[in-house]
Amino acid sequence: MKNNVFRSLLILCFVMLYSFSEAQSISGTVSDESGPLPGATVIVKGTTNGTTTDFDGKYSINVGNLENKLLVFSSLGYKTVSVKLNTDNQLVDMVLQEDLLSLDEVIITGTSGIATKKQLGSAITSITADDLSDSKAIVSVGEALQGQVAGAYISRNSGNPSGGMSIRLRGASTLSGSSDPLYIIDGVVVNNRSNQAIDLGGYTQNRLVDINPNDIERIEILKGAAAAAIYGSRASNGVVQIFTKKGKIGAPKITYTASVNVNKIRKNLPYNDAQLEWDANGVAVPATRYNYQDYIFTSGTGYENSLSINGGTEKTKYAFSGSLYKNEGIVRNTDFGRKTLRLRIDQELYSWLDLSVGSFISSNKSNDMPNGKNYGPITALIFADNTNDQDPDEFGNYPNIGLWMPSPRETIDRIDASQKNFRSISDIQLKLSPFEGFKVNYTFGFDHSNTEGLLFVPRGVNTRPNGRSEKATINSNMYNSDFNMSYQFDINDKIKSTTGFGYSYQYEKNEAFGVKNDQVGPIDGVIVTDPSNAIGGADFRSEASYWGGFLQQTFAYNDRIFLTIAGRIDGASTFGENERQQFYPKISASYNISDEYFWNNSLINTLKLRAAWGQAGNLTALSPYQIFTNYNQQNYNGNIGYFPSLLQGNENLKPERQTELEFGFDMAMFNNKLSLEFSYYNQEVEDLLIGRSLSPSTGFGNRFDNIGTMTNKGFELLLKAKPINGDFNWNVIATLSHNKNTVTHVEGGRLSLGMFGTSVAQTNEPIGSFYGTFFARDANGANLLDSNGFVQRARGHYEETVLSDGETVLVAVEDYDANGQPSGTLLKKIIGDPNPDFVASITNEFEYKNLGFRFQLDFIQGNDVMSWDKRMGYLFKGGQQTAQELNGDVPKGSSRPNFFIFESFIEDGSYIKLREVALFYNLKIDKPYLYNVKFTLSGTNLISFDNYYGFDPEVNTEGQSNGVRGQDMANVPIPQVYKFGVILNF
Fold first, then answer.
1. Which tens digits make up the pLDDT trace of 69-89?
2. Rounded to an integer, what distance in angstroms lies between the CA atom of residue 387 and that of residue 406?
3. Which of helix, strand or coil describes residue 436?
4. Theoretical Cys-Cys bridge with 977: which of 47, 589, 804, 940, CB 3.0 to 4.6 Å?
């Protein structure tokens, strides 16, 4: 009996020893030259078994049997290192070397499967959560990208708390569609349209505002057709793919972020402060001036609370987050609020099959004011003669300053405008790896958005004497189904092959309904329902589907030379019957020359050469039913009817097509302390969709055709440097971009794009060039004055000139009489260009132990702005120029001739902005439940060095419009923002 027990105990000991040997635990610390490296990834090669380092750089991982196991250490910005495990190294510490080029970084966007940056023949920008400032006061992803992306021109359209962002990658590529890139979130193509339910002016919300920036793990950006060809007809403007945070192996990690902010106006508009006015006889009399800006603008406050939890096991990982955001605008009675929830679960079903399910919801509401050439408070400011006291009397009546003339104070006090939006984005993803080298991914995604807009203007407001009430809703639903597979194998010891195939189907359905009434009852909130008083309603529905497949082949030679060839075939219900299928090819190559055995350059550590050529399309200018001749709605006595449209359908319509050639290099120098990424590109855009006039004998007014062309040529440079490493760290990121846009063909030589014909597309000129009257000048370039000492408009005649594309255009030729004075017809010509010559940014970050300081400067040079605010000041006497007349600084009456010369209102839009200044402190806490607290203090948009008359040269009245840029009329200025935040890591 005793022997049996002894044998049993002996067997048990052997089993325990064997089990111990089979389930070894490896631990250690990962660091760089300056100390512990938090967030580094440690993974057993060839498996999904991995973990990340904590705030002190420590990790622990169960690896099972140590035999033939490799432990891989990686972190973005550092070289990846592998270590072979054995029984003697259960404690593995690792020091990672910095790699500013990040050529080992895994890239997903634009590849058929998974590739590293060193394999790509085109430029791609990858931005991680660490690169996105957690101290900057931002409401959307677009703001976070400012200064981070070479080749991108990112600007705010308005200072409203929910104002949209314009993102242009390598210039504009369409006249009538959108130049915004294609947005993909966790593999799902999402709606980024900037439609307003009710048109309140140019601040147009960009739907990126729905996304909580704290949820972002990484962003990958492709900038042109050469890189984005496999995305086909939706990708000529580039691709922005956003990856949200996922769960990681380990105990739950909780991050709580809280912040408060104050918003202030940076600069007031110059106004007429002369204490004089002209009476009916033209005699100057004493007058009291009122600065309405003191009431319109206020100091807004805001707050944000965000909570995230992530963790998991080897089989199951989870990530959850929620946020509350509220921000008041600098215009009184405006604000924006947002609530978000997000959940992601990753489950390993089998060793060869993974399932990922994600869902995101966002609910937001904005209280707005009409803005930008509309009847809002800033419109009232520039339209008003500021000798009128705008305060209401004791009975609450506001002064009447003229029919249809808005009162600044009444607009704020009495007009109610709001917009609500509910957004839901969900996806299900399956990843299969049935055998080595073969991978299959399937994604089904759904993006739903519901927007509701309300506007109420009570009876008696000057701009709407009978009042106005409007309500509108927009429903948008997008469904995505994407199937991708790739197979990688070694042809021989030196040549590897990767073949990728993908097919996608997308369906989109949009519904819009609106009703408005121009007869409001005498009591606020009561609407008269007599249908004869109603402007009427509108109901719109549309459906469209898009499908396409691609095939991509990559060959790698000795892991240093890479060649990729790809092609995609696309189809869409919006394409004409004769153009239903479109083909987009691509070829790219890269050569990592510094990996060659002969490379021995102590100055240049890494050098990669790359080149790419490709085509992609833009279908944003195609509406679902332009290929058909349709009917239009007509309202009569509140009833909806239909009549034949004057727009003729066209069965030959197709997407606009961009062909791009790109080449460049990536280089690291001085022991990887400095990196340069340079790209030159040449884009040719053809088949631009343009409306053309038809002869009345056809029975139609116009028709859309693919008849325009344009080009974009430029370069971009990204510099990263780490001059100092250690207890004191200094990091630098700088970008420089130049783009030259030229319209090479439009029918008739010139096409009006908007803003009363002042923005045009003209052959041999940049898109959106300003067109208008200009000063008459003598041979020395000085303004010609009339007998009263006033400036004059140029006069003469127009001559028909044949352009390079064969089209003819009338060109202004100035004429003068015998006295040298302008003579003939009033002339117009190109008088300005809203497109910048150069866009640049530099960010410096300094850290000493736990204390950090960062500042970012943004530079825009060579663009013009047309200031309608200044022009209205001439007309309505509220501007500073009228004060100069009253004070005798300029001849009396000189404002009037200036008003009719549009060149007088072209301003230099160049600026240098102190975009951000931030101070932060990391407090390490040695507690089991709380290990780090980060305090941040920042200021955003603090200073702008410019010579601009108006509030801010970084503005656009037409919001997201592509052809109408640089127009400034009654826009809300971009505020200064001061923010204090706390980040707790549990």
1. 788 888 877 888 888 887 666
2. 14
3. coil
4. 940
* Residue ranges with strand state E in 698-817: 702-724, 728-745, 750-754, 759-762, 769-772, 795-802, 808-814
Let me know: does 90 contact 27? Beta carbons within 8 Å.
Answer: yes
- Determine the average pLDDT of the residues in 830-848: 96
Which of 43-47, 554-558, 869-873 is modeled with the greatest confidence? 554-558
What's the whole-number mean pLDDT along residues 757-775?
94
Q: How far apart are CA 380 and CA 402, in angstroms?
A: 12
Q: Which phi and psi (to 5°) does residue 172 adopt? A: -80, 150
Strands (E), 78-120: 81-84, 94-95, 106-107, 115-116
- Residue in the structure block whose two tokens are 């023949």: 121
Which residue shows structure tokens 């990121």? 733
**Got the DSSP string for 415-429?**
-EEEEEEEEEEEEEE
701 phi, psi to nearest 5 deg: -95, -40
* pLDDT above 70 coverage of the chain, percent: 92
- Which region holds residue 280: left if phi is over 0, alpha if psi is between -120 and 50, else beta? alpha
User: What is residue 300's DSSP assignment?
Assistant: E
Angle at 951 between CA 948 and CA 957, to 5 degrees: 100
Q: How far apart are CA 142 and CA 463, in angstroms?
A: 35
615, with CB counted inside 10 A (0-12, 13-18, 19+), is buried
Q: What is the pLDDT of residues 885-936, one digit of tens each?
A: 888 788 887 888 888 999 999 999 999 999 999 999 999 887 778 888 999 9
- The pair of structure tokens assigned to 916 is 């951000």
- The answer to whether the beta carbons of residues 704 and 650 sit under 8 Å apart is yes
Section 485-511 average pLDDT: 94
User: Which amino acid does the sequence have at 553?
Assistant: Q
Strand partners, 552: 500, 566
Check residue 373 and give left, alpha or beta (phi > 0: left; psi -120 to 50: alpha).
left
Q: CA-to-CA distance for 100 and 32, rounded, in angstroms?
A: 13
Domain topology for 124-747+833-863+909-985: Maltoporin; Chain A (2.40.170)
Query: How many other CB atoms are there within 10 angstroms of residue 654's CB atom?
Result: 23
In which residue are the tokens 């009122």 written?
A: 290
227-232: average pLDDT: 86
Q: pLDDT tens digits, residue range 514-565?
A: 888 887 776 655 555 455 555 667 788 899 999 999 999 999 999 999 999 9
Q: Which of 902, 763, 715, 940 is nearest to 261 (CA)?
A: 940
pTM of the model: 0.89
Closest CA to 957 of 378, 462, 181: 378
Domain ranges of the chain: 21-97, 124-747+833-863+909-985, 748-832+873-903
Read off the pLDDT of residues 157-198 as tens digits, 9 standing for 90 and up. Answer: 788 887 677 889 999 989 888 888 999 999 999 987 767 788
Buried b (16+ CB within 10 A) or exposed e, 748-767: ebbbebebeebbbbbbebbb
Q: Calculate the average pLDDT of the chain.
A: 86
Q: Of 864, 862, 865, 843, which Cα lies nearest the Cα of 854?
A: 843
As a 3-state breakdown, the chain gives helix, strand, coil percent values, each rounded to 5, of 10, 50, 40
Highest mean pLDDT among 111-120, 377-386, 491-500: 491-500
Closest CA to 204 of 474, 414, 415: 474
- Those residues whose C-beta lies under 8 Å from the C-beta of residue 238, and which sit 6 or more positions away, are 169, 170, 181, 182, 221, 222, 223, 224, 227, 228
